[in-house]
Each structure stands twice: as structure tokens, then as C-alpha cells.
Amino acid sequence: MAPRYSEIRCPMAVVAGREDRIVDPHAHAVQLHNAVAGSTLHLLAETGHMPQHARPDAVMAAIERVERAMTGTSAHAEA
């Protein structure tokens, strides 16, 4: 898939744990971020392979930033 990363045209937040011992975030998350124009990169300190479980607040915040950039608002903030 990596050769086609640059074809992605949708807003994207790339979220990874800095201390991921399963997948090297610099070899994968950083590469993805660098290939996708306009993406944002969030390397979370003291976080391993599953940031959505370890740091759901940070993952949600990254998603909401993308949503706000697209729509000007956040559905989560309105709830």
C-alpha cells in the first residue's frame, strides 16, 4: 500500500504511540504522514501500540481537529 499513499486525498490524522514495540512509528506513521499531503501527525508520548485504548482522549482530539477543519464544527462538541 505504501506506494499508493500519495494518492490519498482525504483529510487524515495519523496517530501512533512513540513507544510502540510492535510497529515502528517512524518507519510507518511518519512515512504515511510524509506521503499524504495535508495530513497531521500525532506521535503520543508514553503510548504503545494501541493509542485508541491507552489515550482515547488524544485520539478523539486528533479526529475532532480533522472534523473541525472539514466542517468548521465538531459533532462531539455539540453532544
From TrEMBL:
InterPro entries: AB_hydrolase_fold. This is Alpha/beta hydrolase. It comes from Azospirillum argentinense.
